[in-house]
Amino acid sequence: MTAPVLEHPVPAAPRSGSGGLPARRAVVRWAWRMFRREWRQQLLILALITVAVAATLVGVAVATNTALPASTGFGTAQDMATFPAPDPHLASQIAALEHRFGRVDVIENQTVAVPGSIATYNLRAQNPHGPFGQPMLSLVSGHYPAGPGEVAVTSGVAADFRLRLGKLWQGRRITGIVENPQNLLDEFALVAPGQVRAPTVVTVLFDANGAHLGSFSRYVVSVKSVANSNVLNPETITVAGVTLGMLLIALVAVGGFTVVAQRRLRSIGMLASLGATDRNVRLVVRANGVVVGVVGAITGAALGLVIWLAYRPLLQTNSHHAIGVLSVPWLVVALAMVLAVLATYFAAARPARAITRIPVVMALSGRPAPPKRTHRWAVPAGLVFLVGAFLLLGDSAAQGNASGGPRFLVFGFVALVVAVILLAPSCLGILARIARRGPVSMRLALRDLARYRARSGSALAAISVAVLIAVVICVAATARYSNMLDYAGPNLTSNQLIVYTNGSYSGGGVPGAGPSAGTVKPASLRAMAAHAHGIATALGSHQVIQLESTSATLQHNAAGRNYSGPLYVATPQLLAAFGIKSTDFSQTTDILSMRPGFAGITKMQLVYGNYYSHGPPPAAAGHTFACPASDCLANPVMQEVSGLPSGTSAPNTVITEHAVHQLGLHPIVTGWLIQTPNALTTPQIYNARQTAGAAGLSIETRSSVPGLTEIIDWATVFGIVLALGVLAMSVGLIRSETARDLRTLSATGASAPTRRNLTAVTAGALGLLGAVLGTAAAYVATFAWFRSSALNGGASALASVPVQNLLVIIVGMPLFAAVIGWLLAGREPPAISRQPLE
Q1: What are the pLDDT digits (tens) for 618-654?
Q2: Disulfide: which of 130, 167, 301, 736 matches 105 by Cβ 3.0-4.6 Å?
């Protein structure tokens, strides 16, 4: 009698209905009481949702407030016209704008160099009470300038020139300290309107209200056009991140609610025996998911708001613009909270459907449901999504910043995540078959992972997605930094300083192209060299390397990125300073470089003479063409020398004296590289800048540009921490669901090492599979993107592999997870004889 009952569900007695609204209300109340009683069992899921929503609120606030807003520079205006000056027709153009569009706000700027530095500031004439520009001015102390003999400065200008209120500076008295709240990096000296005698640019703020601009269109930009030009704005990126985060939550929550449903199996069986329909039973589990989602979303939003209020002052300092207390995109936060509830609802829906298929008698006995086989269509569907992701990501790279590029990028990444979710359960079965000849504890752990894929498959997918994100960042950053043409990274080391001669620095780390480069008289050059040596002596350094440049530079006559950076002359002094001997390279070599792989680049041209008078260089024109033989040397002989410094502004690539004499070039002194025994301090940099400024020189020190190691190391740490967090939650849920099996093993004499091995193998297997699957998916994505991106070097850019970071992820993370699982497991279950009633 009982055998057929256990094998088949008992058909429910005919009912006139499901009980209607009163029955659903009663079931929801019962689910709420069960949540209050068993909140500890769901604490893991609740904590995950709380942290995710809190991180989303803080993340979206940081993402939207870190970058300068689209309205920066517009004040309260919707349109801005920028006119170059001097221009004899400027006054009539401004008058025509005012006549056509009404009120205007005129701001005049004159760019002035900070003596002794490559930095500049603006001498700005602006009405503090103008109709549109008021949000661009804020008074920190003192008062605004009111006459021709007054000036107010920003704190940066005051620090550069050591100014204070009431002090005379350049014939004007300091009346106040001001700032631009929309851009705290905006350094300027504010004077009264009409006091800038030689402006270099004039900005006119106005409201066109959608009217036709006519001849002014080439000068005008609007707030709307600036905002629309950035398709991947912070809100879009954050929404994508929120969706991905909630997907991770749903993947982990599926296993969590499966465990909760299993724990409540006898209670739900009792509810079904009292007359509850399948719809009522499903509602119990789904209502529990909604309750967990709502509680987690509200708690997470409150926690995130507290964190944001504490972090906002620091972010305001780091992002260099004023940020409102409640400057948070609340629509995105509300979307995150809604997605959190939806994620838990759909995560609970799967075990809700599964639990209604269990016969009532089996549910009352507390026996677990038999494992389900993986759908046969999962692997083919996963491969289809994988191919679709490959094609979409390739199209996104081919279209670049066109309208379809970002859209294809988002769709491609979503398809890739779906492919990982579909393929993850099948990987568990493959691992179980491989380990058939392993120890008993290993076979048991892997068999359980393969049999109960409803919980372990979703956990593996979540771990794989976490690894996928980290590996994509590592691989893409390594590929970008390995582009030896457009060299990226820090400009100098912390103990290096470059002193440039007057006018030799043209910006962008390219010396020798300034307006007065090569026109310095020998006597003046000797005086500047003496000042450079004096700066070095004050810094405790005796290593001063003279830097010489020529009119020559390098270019790559092919599609993609072109050469960037200075090209200094490899003088004997420079080579000796870095320990490079003349025997270390061939005497017929034209170019020496420390950039790995640079010597193997083909289609290079050493350009000199009058080439640039024939037209714009290929990098600027967007195409390639060969220069005349009289103006360039095709395929110069290049050799890699690792002893040269690596900074982007340092002499990392040099032209040999052999090439200088062969091409008839004339070297000119453009600066001096100073290397100090220790890292430069802020007072030392300030004193060096003051000394250089007094002598008409300028200096460059280390910038804040991060290096490759810093980027990929942080990405690796992020991926491992996220994956280990998901892994710890998943292993805890899996071990709690298999507590019955653990009791049986303990009752039959299984020792603590056996129980430890079970947990260690479970954690290690999930970690290893997640690392391998996530890394493979990441390489599919990056290969698809780079192969269609000629600008970034094509698929060959992936030849540089972050081996150490990948080994840490693929090998280190599973080992760490296994060790931690072994150390934390092994405790004997408190109740071996039977499972207590709930």
Answers
A1: 444 444 556 676 778 888 999 999 889 988 889 999 9
A2: 130
CA–CA dist 530, 524 (Å, integer): 10
Q: Give me the pLDDT at residue 674, please.
A: 93
Sequence-separated (6 or more) residues with CB below 8 Å from residue 722: 466, 469, 470
Question: Is residue 664 packed enough to be buried (19+ CB in 10 Å), middle (13-18) or exposed (0-12)?
Answer: exposed
The residue written with tokens 């009289």 in the block is 630
**Cα angle: 824, vertex 829, 830; to 5 degrees:** 120
Within 8 A by CB and 6+ apart from 438, the residues are 446
- What is the CB neighbour count within 10 angstroms for residue 231? 15
Of 709, 708, 712, 707, nearest in space to 778 by CA? 712
Tokens 């995710």 correspond to 52
Give the long-range contacts of residues 2-9, CB within 8 A, separation 24 or more. Answer: 2/361, 5/359, 5/361, 6/359, 6/361, 6/362, 7/359, 8/359, 9/357, 9/358, 9/359, 9/360
Nearest to 683 by CA among 538, 466, 486: 538
55-99 confidence digits (pLDDT tens): 777 877 776 776 666 667 788 888 888 888 777 878 888 888 888
User: Using an 8 Å Cβ cutoff, are 97 and 83 in contact?
Assistant: no
- Residue 461 to residues 261, 342, 435, 680, Cα–Cα distance (Å): 21, 19, 21, 48
Q: How far apart are CA 546 and CA 574, in angstroms?
A: 7
Tell me the whole-structure pTM to 2 decimals: 0.66
Token pair of 727, please?
């892994």
Query: 3-state DSSP call for residue 692?
Result: helix
Would you give the DSSP letter of residue 808?
I
Q: Residue 106: which of 196, 239, 6, 218 has the closest Cα? A: 196
The phi, psi pair for 38, rounded to 5°, reads -115, 35
Instruction: With beta carbons less than 8 A apart as the criterion, state whether 778 and 769 touch.
Output: no
Non-local CB neighbours of 709 within 8 Å, separated by 6+ positions: none
Residue whose C-alpha is closest to residue 254's, from 44, 528, 23: 44
Checking DSSP bridges between strand 568-570 and strand 653-656, what pairing results, if any?
parallel
Distance CA 533, CA 782 (A): 49
Which token pair is 559? 């599609």
Which amino acid does the sequence have at 658? H
DSSP state, 10? P
Per the CB < 8 A criterion, the answer to whether 754 and 444 are in contact is no
Q: Are strands 105-113 and 120-125 parallel, antiparallel or unpaired?
A: antiparallel
Determine contact, residues 86/199, Cβ cutoff 8 Å.
Answer: yes
Rg (CA), the chain: 34
- Token look-up 């000296």 returns 189
| Polymer length of the chain | 838
For residue 715, give Cα distances in angstroms to 54, 236, 238. Answer: 21, 21, 18
- Beta-bridge partners for 505: 511
